[in-house]
Fold this sequence. Notes:
Number of strands: 36
Strand content: 25-35%
Structural class: alpha+beta
Low-confidence stretches: 1-39
Helix content: 10-25%
Shape: globular
Mean pLDDT: 87
Distance between the termini: 8 Å
Amino acid sequence: MRLRALSLVPILALAPLATHAEPAPVLAATSIAEVPPPGRASVSFEVAPILGTTSPTPAGWSGFIVRLQNNEAKPLRGEVEVLSRLHSDHMRFRATAPFVVGAGTSVVVRLPTHGSVYGETSVIARDDAGVVLGSHTTAVTNMQELFLLDVSETSRLKGALHDAAISPLFSPWGGYGAYGTGPQLKVGAPRFDPATGDPILPDRAALYAPASAVLLRSDTLVKIGAAELEALSGYVLAGGTLAVALARPEDLRSSILAAFVGGEITQTSPHSETLRELVLPAPPSNATKSIPFAETPAEEVSKTLVGFSGGNLHGSRYGASATYGLGEVHLLGFDPTRKPAVDDPWVQARVLDLTRRAFDRKSSIVYRQGGSPGTVDLDRVRQELDPNESSRWGIAVAAILLIAYAVAAGPVNFTMHANKGKPLRALVWLPILSAIAFFAVVLIGLFAKGLTGRSRHLTLVEAGAGMTKGTARRWRGFFTPRSKDLTVRTSDGSSVVTTAVVAAPATIDDHMLVDRDGARLVDLAILPWQTVVVREDGFADVGEGISIVHEGEKDTAVTNRSGHDLRAALLVLPGLQPRYFPMIKDGERVLASAGKDLKTVSAGTTWIRQVSGTRRAGTLDLHPLSAVFVRPLIEPDAPGLAEAWLAVEQSSGGLVDWFPEDVPVLLGQLDGGEGKTSDAGLKLERDRLLVRIVGYGGRP
């Protein structure tokens, strides 16, 4: 079956979500700040995290919503600003968005932010005269928490599961500690538009980064806006988890649900897997809340249990489940947002386990959309994108030239003129030789570094097998021979960007402007002959997809329909069975059995030993890429590709399971890059596009 990602036309990120003829009521339940502004008492200001008041403000990407109510008799213009600081006197990231709110109406503005660990984030609204309309400050958290977003106007699950002990298998924190209670589940709900009754959800997938899973009812899913749906589908496509409770039988005919699960849906009786006993891990002795064990559902819940079939659905503990890209979609066999299911420990345990599973799945994603691992090494990324790394020869040539100058201007010059009986003439030639050497060194430097600015890209696209769209992390390097301020636009309307690497003595000081023209970094300062690296989290097309399907009982077939030739393709089958293909041309179909078995070559066995040497993160074993040892395997067919994979591996934070043992993984380079010729007005001289395809799927 051919799988396609949801492709919806994004609407303007800054478009007001609510503009009412009458003043809108204030939702005190979801507001976390309402500050009477000095000098503008007739203007009310509210701010809240975009995923709800109980959602964390983590390191990495998240967002805020700001609601301004204008009770004056004339329109109000101004700007909303989000400041994220590493320390109180050191600003790291600033995002701004203009707003216009009519007389007697209100406006809601969504604004992304990028936080730093142990930093703080402030939200400020000002009118066009600079008068502060309101402000709010929150600390960036580094707590051991898992967050479930319950898209309900009043979350009943919050009372049942909030602060419950949860025991994920994946532990990126390096252990739970001897005296802590371990990770806890936080349940939150987004704000709802008081005029329409619709939830205000993120308009960019990266802003879902704090959420381990998203839970909503089908009647809510089928009516959310285009930009919100694009962001939600992108979140799942990039490895997120979406749980849907059936509200109305007619929702099963929704094209949105069909796109998520890969086909038409039919309601059936409950699956046997759903009824199988589920025993949660024992909570810590000092846990503040735990879910009691229930072998079977309550009688009232049991009568309402259902199952589903169709598309890619299969029975699961939660009802029926299907993969979508790198993520999962669960059609729940019960409705945990309503009574009687919300009060049933049997249901509560399954919701808790679903969130745990969603969090554990993050271990198999190299670059989590909007996420920020604790420690990363971006030096290899900088080297890959820095033209200075390819101009080292100029230093060697200049050094040889200076040695030659020292010999010629000293011993040779004075000896030659002394032999001619005119030793003082050597003093005349000395400045001439010095000038020649000086200009020669300058010319070598100019020739090595170039006279024009240029840019380079290193992109990793991760996609499910057969999917036409994948999550993309773009590293974009910019280099100019003189000081310059650049404007760096996102590749599409749903992406986010921030500076990743700058040359000393400069420090990161970003300003991301969000308006009707989209999001972009403005006034990005570049020092002469220094490279600035920008990180972009977004998505990329993969043509008609790269499919990986079973062939017979023992073989696997790979079909490349990406629109590019796939170079140095490394296919790792379940059980760490690697096959290598120097090239899989666009449109070509190959069998795994026809590839080179890396266990038969010495370099291959060395690499396999390294990959098999797993690293523990909690109770999960993570398989590294070990790009250093893959070099002799792929370098003859793709010069420089091993260095690119090494840069990606080191920048991923280390806690990644590159090769999950139960699904195939395909790595390679798509020739031709993304087809761009320039970036921010600078010539694009190198565009390396890497892909990682995970799982089975796609057309045979």
